[in-house]
Design goal:
about 375 residues; alpha+beta; five-stranded antiparallel β-sheet; 11 helices; about 35% helix; globular
């Protein structure tokens, strides 16, 4: 492979006049961008030239691939925060073994135009993958989204290693490739542990989600949305959210409520749920009397969590996301109406607790139950 081919990869490029014009008329393309584009081709125009005039000039020119890259970069979609997923490997790894695996993977990904880098930090390895996600269903100049996927490999546990990754197509592909290379560092390959209800009764899938309403010290505050489907693949979520919210907030036992029982009887199961939690903390009522301390979540921030099965038909591909936070306003004694900025440490702590709760619930529900 030539050095030029390694640099730009294999390309099949074509863009017609309509595609070019559709891109140029976008508001994000400013006159100064077009002036710069023309000047690089040796064409100099007045700085106060209007955009329509500049567009007429640009459209008469022959576009090559690098012209496409420049103009489409002005219209690139922002990289949004994706849902996360975690996979566990039942094996102990060391930093050198993980580094060897990632070094091998780095060279393999070059041909796919994915830049991989990593660093060891304590008992973790932070892997960063940079690439461009191309959505061919969009207009040619709006297809590109620069992505930075972060994969965290935690080998602090004595008997297993966890791999947290984005729950995207590329994130899952990278995770699988990382596991393949890490398995090569072991005397015998191990199977990853993942939450998968494909071959388990449908009622367990719903019970699994209800077990996540309280995430250890993070107590359920509200149910935002619940999506369910039946065994025929039909979706239904209009009445489910309010019914489950009422049952949960009223203190009723969800699993014994009549509506919950009707879900199981009609072969419906939850595949996606959003809810709010608040962390229960010790509140000092009397600084000199510990016996009056209250363990409550009434003065804590509210976090919105989403959990779902990416493959809702088979109830597999469990992923999750800390979506938003409403800060507690101590001066008003209430939660702020508007959302605040999520702190990285808060997201990391809650994400790990959520996955731990999900893993424990999955093992509890499937260890002694039959399969469909």
């Amino acid at each position: 492979m030539s050095s030029e081919n390694k640099k730009v990869g294999n390309r099949l490029y074509f863009m017609n006049d309509k595609s070019i014009r559709d891109g140029l008329i976008a508001q994000r393309v400013k006159p100064e961008h077009l002036i710069s584009f023309l000047s690089k081709k040796g064409i100099y125009v007045a700085q106060d030239s209007t955009k329509p005039m500049l567009m007429d000039m640009v459209q008469t020119m022959r576009f090559d691939y690098f012209d496409y890259l420049y103009l489409s970069s002005l219209l690139e979609n922002p990289d949004r925060r994706d849902n996360q997923a975690t996979t566990e490997l039942p094996a102990k790894f060391t930093a050198p073994k993980i580094s060897t695996a990632l070094t091998s993977l780095t060279s393999k990904l070059e041909s796919e135009e994915v830049g991989l880098s990593y660093k060891v930090s304590g008992k973790k390895v932070i892997v960063e993958a940079n690439y461009v996600d191309t959505d061919y269903s969009k207009a040619p100049m709006r297809q590109r989204t620069p992505k930075k996927d972060v994969i965290e490999i935690d080998f602090s546990a004595p008997e297993d290693t966890s791999i947290m990754h984005p729950a995207t197509e590329m994130g899952k592909k990278l995770k699988d490739m990382v596991i393949e290379e890490m398995n090569k560092q072991l005397p015998a390959s191990v199977e990853p542990i993942e939450i998968d209800f494909e071959h388990h009764p449908h009622e367990l899938r719903t019970e699994f989600f209800t077990k996540l309403l309280d995430v250890f010290d993070y107590k359920m505050y509200d149910v935002v949305n619940v999506s369910v489907r039946d065994s025929n693949g039909d979706d239904e979520d209009s009445d489910v959210t309010s019914e489950l919210r009422n049952a949960a907030l009223s203190g009723k036992k969800l699993l014994t409520s009549s509506f919950y029982q009707s879900l199981a009887g009609d072969h419906y199961n939850i595949y996606k749920m959003s809810w709010k939690v608040r962390k229960a903390v010790t509140i000092k009522v009397d600084p000199e009397d510990d016996s009056k301390d209250i363990f409550s979540s009434d003065m804590s921030d509210s976090f919105t969590i989403e959990a779902k099965f990416d493959d809702k038909e088979k109830s597999k591909g469990f992923s999750y996301k800390v979506k938003a936070v409403h800060r507690y306003n101590s001066s008003k004694g209430t939660l702020n109406v508007t959302t605040g900025k999520l702190d990285k440490h808060e997201v990391e702590e809650l994400s790990k607790l959520l996955f731990k709760a999900a893993t424990e619930a999955y093992l509890e529900l499937t260890s002694d139950k039959g399969k469909e």
